[in-house]
Amino acid sequence: MRSLMLGAALAAAAASASAQESGGTMVMVTQPEPPNLASYLSTSGPIGQVATKVYEGLVTLGWDFEIQPALAKSWEVSEDGLTVTFNLQDGVTWHDGEAFDSADVQFSIMNVLREVHPRGGATLSIIEAVETPDPLTAVLKLSEPAPYLMVALNGYESPMVAQHVFEGTDIRANETANAPVGTGPFKFVEWQKGQYVRLDKNENYWRDGRPYLDRVVVRFIADASTRTAAMENGELHFAAFGAIPNIDVPRLEEMDSIEVTTKGYEYFAPIMQLQFNVDAKPFDDPAVRRAVATAMDREFVVENIWFGFGKPATGPISSNFAASGIYTADVPSFEVDDRIAAANKMLDDAGYPRGADGVRFSIVHDMTPYGEEWRRFGEYTKQVLAEIGVAAELRYEDVATWLKRVYTDYDYALSSNWLFSMPDPVLGVHRQYHSNQIRPGTVFVNGTKWSSPETDALMDAAKTETDPAARAELYAKFQNIIVEQSPIVFMHELEFTTVYNTKLHNAVSGPLGVYNSFADVWLEQ
């Protein structure tokens, strides 16, 4: 397992104000090209990498997850935890010139994020109302205390949108999905499909002197070797979330003009997984799901497909939560000496004999359409399944088609995937397992269709439990049930790299990483 590479990201972030320069065009690469720029509608990773430069949240986050001002300059939480009062920044305008005010906050939370955002439907459900006593005051009324709420109100997780742009329209079909109008440091200019998105400096940005950059160009380069070459020759300044293949990272790291860091992913705690459609035969049978979980070699996948960037996962909650007590490794284990023999026996015992051709049953494996590692993982999975008598056809589609297949039509049997665990299980974990998160048309929620009154009750109790020990006990029971029933095969906790040019400063300035606004990023001319 590869150790963290801290790089020089923090040193760059500490550059003195006197050294900062204004101007220049920063060129970043996002892989794959996003299906849209509607971060209020989808948490697809590439969308947020672009949209967070345009849309902002009420708050942002420091390195230790301290809550910092953004569109809200200050806030107060009532003693009973049921009222949160936000005092908004004065003089903020949308990119079309209209004023931003508390009515936009009310509309964003109640009419957009709670209704169509993949995680907002769960995390913001405790907000019963948003009162607007004046244009610069928004008062959130909660049904119960929610200690996880503030960390979820950043620009990536809860982008504020313009009421005058969305009101009276179909939120899911609004044309702003491909031409966003926000309050952020950069304004959307154009999207040349298959090539780039251009964002220009917001000259009327509410933070004086920001942004430093004149422009951010987000390029889409399908070929991995071309992305690496473009970074090497200085055409690209920034690449996150594995846009530069792990196999090329060590060589680029040796160059004086390039830095590599694994910082900037602390907010996300991503887990890579295989997920089953538990309504589709034969994966409606837990024994079959456990057999697949047993056959997969997690260490092999980490070392040989992700080149050491990650560590085996044990269940639905990341080991990042170990310090809080929420994570437990005391769950059923699929680590056995002879994986293939054990998995074959499990399928025999479950009543799935091999036919004359050695095949027990055939499936289609839908691969995550995010690049070369996922193709290689698909090929590995096909080989492993063949060893246990399962014939797997590989299918690799564009992002939009894959998302619709998995989260709208449920027209799949087995898919690779990875989802963010987020800073609290309520934000990132519940959405994958709670029955109320089977929401056709909403992406990155419960796509397995797993439903259990017992695990629903455990999540509901943990959501409001304020005693750390009691909360940990609830989540321990939850993890044990999920692993034993295996609606998902937990492969590994992903470790991503960010590769950037040393001329770029403040490139990684907090736990949100590439999902920061880049208002403080500057480029040596």
Automatic annotation (TrEMBL):
Organism (species): Rubrimonas cliftonensis
Listed GO MF terms: peptide transmembrane transporter activity
Keywords, alphabetical: Signal
Cellular-component GO terms for this entry: ATP-binding cassette (ABC) transporter complex; outer membrane-bounded periplasmic space
Domain Solute-binding protein family positions: 66-437
Official protein name in the record: Peptide/nickel transport system substrate-binding protein
Localization of this protein: Periplasm
Protein's UniProt keywords contain Signal: yes
InterPro entries reported in the protein's UniProt record: Peptide/Ni-bd (IPR030678), SBP_5 (IPR039424), SBP_5_dom (IPR000914)
Similarity field: Belongs to the bacterial solute-binding protein 5 family.
Keyword Heme: no
Pfam families per record: SBP_bac_5 (PF00496)
GO BP term, example: peptide transport
Cleaved signal peptide residues: 1-19
